[in-house]
Design goal:
six-stranded mixed sheet; binds guanosine-5'-triphosphate; Four Helix Bundle (Hemerythrin (Met), subunit A); 12 strands; binds magnesium ion; 3 domains; Rossmann fold
Amino acid sequence: MRENLSSWNDTIVALATAPGLGAIAVIRLSGSDAIQIVNCVFPNKDLGQAKTHTAHVGKLMEGIQVIDEVVVTLYRAPKSYTGEEVVEISCHGSPFIQDSILQLMIQSGARMAKPGEFTQRAFLNGKLDLTQAEAVADLIASNTEASRKAALYNLKGGFSTDLKLMREKLIKFSALIELELDFSQEDVAFANKKELEILVQQLQLKTTTLLESFKLGNVIKNGVQVAIVGKPNAGKSTLLNTLLNEHRALVSEIPGTTRDTVEEYLNIQGVLYKLIDTAGIRQQTTDTIEQMGIDKSREKIQEADIVIALFDVNTTTLDQITTWENEIGVDKIILVGNKIDLANKEKMVDFQTLKNIIFISAKDKDNIESLKVAITEKVIGEGFNKEGTIITNARHVSSLKKLLIALNDVETGLIENITGDLLALDIRQALHYLGTITGEITNEDQLDFIFSKFCIGK
Ligand SMILES: Nc1nc2c(ncn2[C@@H]2O[C@H](COP(=O)(O)OP(=O)(O)OP(=O)(O)O)[C@@H](O)[C@H]2O)c(=O)[nH]1
Ligand SMILES: [Mg+2]
């Protein structure tokens, strides 16, 4: 069991299902008095005698008044989510009943749980490590297949398994080096410095890979920003509508129709994209509102992860396309030639000399699938289907960065052949940062911050 970091001997209660009307709702209690509190208002059976993992039907009573007929499920410590005595009351889903039961539980001695307090208790009782607890929050918040998968992988301990292995190996070395210090008079060497050097290099590589995966992890969690930019009338708003399959943005043959940006979310193959339709960019305009729109479009180009540079194949020259490519950068840009339904063959042959252009008709919804494939490839590249851990949490990134610095110090120390006591200090520092990720090393403020982001009842 982990160190007792807060006063959590009391019994907490919260609604575990979404608030509002539903067929049924679940109210959960956790703490040493959980069973007793419910037992007091559940006259049908003596729950005090009931075994763990059993369900019981009966009436919840407030004095002589029946509040609801419910199913009570018991989980006795330590075989429960939190590791404490847990009771789940499945009641009828009216908000009035939910509220009445919560009040009844509070009158009987429970207190309202803080956000994430159930999971916090699970952590404090050693049921989950910190990355797993954080994965619970991510799983609840996940809104795409990809973010669900990443969270689930971490919940199963995928991420922390990697780190724990690293930590164990390093602890072994730390112990050997500290042993040497005890025998310093006798000039013995327990730790093989060459092996330590190899281990440190492996750890550096692993840490760097984990840090790099955050780019993708962040994208999975928060969505990829895709700006659609181009000259006025290129068909940007038409493309947005086609991708979304709805008439979201205004379309007209008048250049300069879109003034402010229009943003909508789209899910392609389990990844969330934020599509941003922008005002058409032209070199010169006397219209101040249009100019403001153009400035904003340029801002969006900077901010976006991907930029779809859309051009009308009938009015655009090869030079103009090359200019776009240079300005936006090959990494970000997807070149898309629009209005192929109006194009003449000679003009199209011209464009064929440039690779990587996708030709579409936004209006006729022609070749839109190829564009979606190009978008997916751009973000995900080969990285996505690769096995392995994806970091999705900013707290982990910050600890991993510090870990990398500490590992570099160990490496430098080895090269410069520093004394054992200094080397041991650097290794301990690296161990510390590894521990802060999985929660072996933590403090109350940090925990409160992490769990405050959970919803109440989890
Ligand atoms: N023939 C044809 N017309 C298109 C196509 N895509 C867009 N259009 C037409 O081109 C005109 C301009 O389309 P919009 O989608 O408003 O263009 P925009 O790039 O958003 O223009 P601004 O908002 O002014 O910058 C409209 O009349 C569309 O119907 C296409 O693939 N083929
Ligand atoms: Mg537009």
